[in-house]
Amino acid sequence: MSMNALLPRTLTSQVCGRVQLQCLRPLRIQAATLNAQGEELKCSIIADALKKNKLAFGFSAGGLLFPYYIGVIDQLEELGVLTDRTPLAGASAGSLIAACYHSGLSTETVTEACLVLADDCRVNGTRGRLGDVLSTFLHDLLPDDAHERCRDKTFVAVTKAWPRPQGLIISEFESRNDLIESLLTSCHIPWWFAGSLGRNFRGSLHYDGGLTSFIPSVQGCLTQKVTCFPAGRLNKAVNIAISPPEQFDLNQLLAWAFRPADEPTMLGFLEQGRKDAAAWAEDSGVLEAVPVQQEQKA
């Protein structure tokens, strides 16, 4: 007769449970250790990329949730992580923040212009007319040498329509107008943006870059991906670095992406962007590499 047969069932269960816990404890400790080591390695890789000027940021499509990106950019620059040499990639709204930053526009200037654009869209709508409103925004805002400032530092995602949808990244701009056309093309949501399927860009039909490259990367760099949507609602394989908490319902965020929220809410997005960027900078360990990068720049 086995020992288990001589013991009460409850006691047998307790003994087995304790044995299982004792067996699992080393595995849990090992898993926690490996996770900690993985985080340390990731932080080391990010810091090393910054030291070598190989750290880039990619911004997702996001429509009129754009103020979140203003906050992220502002905070990263304030911390010294972001400089005028940092490669920035973007699709749709993400391309706009990349171009605005590398064009040398201040946070205050971009924020004010964004709020004016949003006010226009609240009053007059966005469907079929957002393209014209955004075109005016860019022509009024970007300096004459914006294309030169952005060249090889701003990477704009667009989608070439023919012969089949193909994602492209544009980083060479022939003129200021060519840069603006690149940005408008990256933002061209079929039928919604300007009432047409696409835009004639550099001689062929193109449209929204976010449809083929939601968060573009910069080739040859370690790209930290940023989105104005909660990372938990997106594909985990995307590896989001900076994103907002799940404060709002995803359907509400999507609605605000197409038609702007009220001004206090939009300014709240901006502040949330600052907070999330600061949290990422602290958690990633990148701040330890900032003095080294600044010395190299000097």
TrEMBL record:
GO molecular function per UniProt: triacylglycerol lipase activity
Protein origin, superkingdom: Eukaryota
Domain PNPLA: 57-221
EC number: 3.1.1.-
Motif GXSXG in this chain: 90-94
A Gene Ontology biological process term: lipid homeostasis
Active-site residues annotated for this sequence: 92, 208
Keywords: Hydrolase, Lipid degradation, Lipid metabolism
Gene Ontology CC terms: cytoplasm; lipid droplet; membrane
Span of the signal peptide: none
Annotated motif DGA/G, positions: 208-210
Transmembrane region(s): none
Physiological role: Lipolytic acyl hydrolase (LAH).
Family to which the UniProt record says this protein belongs: Belongs to the patatin family.
Domain writeup: The nitrogen atoms of the two glycine residues in the GGXR motif define the oxyanion hole, and stabilize the oxyanion that forms during the nucleophilic attack by the catalytic serine during substrate cleavage.
Alphabetical list of PANTHER family matching this protein: CALCIUM-INDEPENDENT PHOSPHOLIPASE A2 IPLA2 -RELATED, PATATIN-LIKE PHOSPHOLIPASE DOMAIN-CONTAINING PROTEIN 4
Protein name: Patatin
Natural source organism: Coccomyxa viridis
